[in-house]
Amino acid sequence: MFDPETFANEAIEQIRQQIDGKTIIACSGGVDSIVATVLVSMAIGDQLLAVHVDTGFMRKNESADVVKMMENMDINHKFVDASQEFYDALKGVEEPEAKRKIIGERFIRVFEREAKIIGSKFLVQGTIAPDWIESGGELRDTIKSHHNVGALPEKMDMKLVEPLRDLYKDEVRKLGRYLGIEFAERQPFPGPGLAIRIIGEPTEEAAHIVREACAIVEEEFEKGAEEGIMELPWQYFAVLTPIKTVGVHGDVRAYGYTVAVRAVQSLDGMTAAYSKIPHEVLDKISIRITNTMKDKVNRVVYDITNKPPATIEWE
Q1: Least buried of 132, 146, 213, 308, by fewest C-beta within 10 Å?
Q2: Range of 86's domain?
């Protein structure tokens, strides 16, 4: 049985033994990175600098929310807008594993630059067990290279510290609750961000479309849960597919993209069942997405695949 108090005490002591000097932590704003940030801050205090990088593939208002959260928690932090750098690095890239590796490498280069500024040789990541399990290695097949594990560059100027490496998502949430973290219950968000919710080349335009679609999905699902007509899924989002189909707006022919909505229930992310969403909620989502982006999107579908055989994210 996982005991968050015991884990926290042991982890704090271990962190103090591992780290000697100024340290950078990659704080994306996801549950794992937030919990890791609080834990390491408890261990080394002002020696820690939490760096949040806007890759251009964040959710709507995500970076502003993360920065405000770190301010409220009185954590040393820095915001870095590297969106153009990531857009440039991903030009012409369509293959999912290639995306993940490029994003992982770009992250490290940004953190290396920031580490040199403050004279840090340590990089903390919120890596958890599913990340390295799915990234493969030894006798494990590679399902997908998580940007913070299998997509790391071979040569790095920093030493990695991963205090949550052996935990699963449900254990991370328990730890977050014990530490009093308000964000501990927020849904998972992949490290590569919206880049892997864009099937094909992750352009700036595509990021804008899927960002708006994801925001609509989140708003309608959360509203439905508040009204008591549905259970809030474990994870829920939109995916921009490269499929363009014929549609109609008024009396005018339209030729637009197809957006897929994905929602699942899970405990630890290793397996998942698709969520049974009321049709009235899906109807609202479809109408809002196609009305909001009627010049770009004219079709919305719902993914009813479990994990396995599918993964939760599409890439």
Answers
A1: 308
A2: 4-185
Determine the pLDDT at residue 141: 53
Residue 29: the pLDDT is 84
The residue from 159, 185, 211 where one domain ends is 185
HSE, CB side, 13 Å, CA atoms: give it for residue 123. Answer: 23
CATH number for the domain including 236?
3.30.300.10
Residues of the chain below pLDDT 70: 134-154
Q: What is the pLDDT of residue 149?
A: 47
Rounded-to-integer distance, Cα 3 and Cα 203, Å: 43
pTM of this structure? 0.85
Inside any domain, residue 195: no
Count: domains in the chain: 2
Cα 187 to chain center, whole Å? Answer: 9
The answer to whether residues 45 and 171 belong to one domain is: yes
pLDDT for res 131: 81
